[in-house]
Specification:
Order of helices and strands: EEHEHHEHEEEH
Number of helices: 5
Number of strands: 7
Strand content: 15-25%
Helix content: 25-40%
Structural class: alpha+beta
Strand order of the largest sheet: 4-3-5-6-7
Oligomer: single chain
């Protein structure tokens, strides 16, 4: 799943992550507000998929901490605290492989992943085996989100397009 329109991908210059804020793309400055709008679409898309699948929790199956600092750091402390609330910073520090995340915690975990603060794979196991999963989410390079499911998600394609998210096979 991705923000990139398959019709124009690779044909236009587009931002790839939060560190691009302030850069110019197609004649427009990429702003924090635009970043947050797109980030919210990613989070909403995963929440809708989880609702569709009946998923209530995800387990952190793989974890890497990225950047000692943050990929984007606002100039004021107040703006930093708004962008990275204390609960999100604590989550980043305390996150461990094997941690089970509830629906309440998954949005902030996704934000940390999208903001390159953490690289993680979140899974719903179909059984106790380490090899089997029913649903898996991770963020790859260039703001590409890997969403793997044993259930076909193609019926959500139109709903995700309303969020400007493109579901690919």
């Amino acid at each position: 799943m991705t923000k990139y329109d398959p019709e124009t991908r690779g044909k236009v210059d587009e931002w790839i992550d939060m560190s691009c804020i302030g850069d110019t793309y197609d004649g427009s400055v990429f702003t924090l507000e635009e970043y947050l709008r797109v980030e919210a679409n990613y989070v909403e898309a995963i929440e809708r998929i989880m609702d569709y699948l009946g998923v209530k929790t995800l387990t952190v199956s793989y974890l890497e901490r990225r950047y000692h600092n943050y990929a984007y750091r606002p100039s004021s402390r107040r703006a930093f605290d708004a962008l990275y609330p204390i609960r999100m910073r604590d989550m980043r520090k305390k996150m461990k492989t094997g941690k089970v995340l509830t629906q309440r915690h998954i949005p902030n975990m996704l934000r940390l992943m999208l903001r390159n603060g953490l690289y993680a794979q979140l899974e719903l196991k179909t059984d106790e085996s380490d090899e089997e999963y029913g649903f898996k989410v991770f963020i790859g390079y260039d703001y590409m989100m890997g969403v793997h499911s044993v259930v076909d998600l193609s019926s959500l394609r139109d709903e995700l397009l309303q969020l400007e998210m493109y579901l690919e096979d």
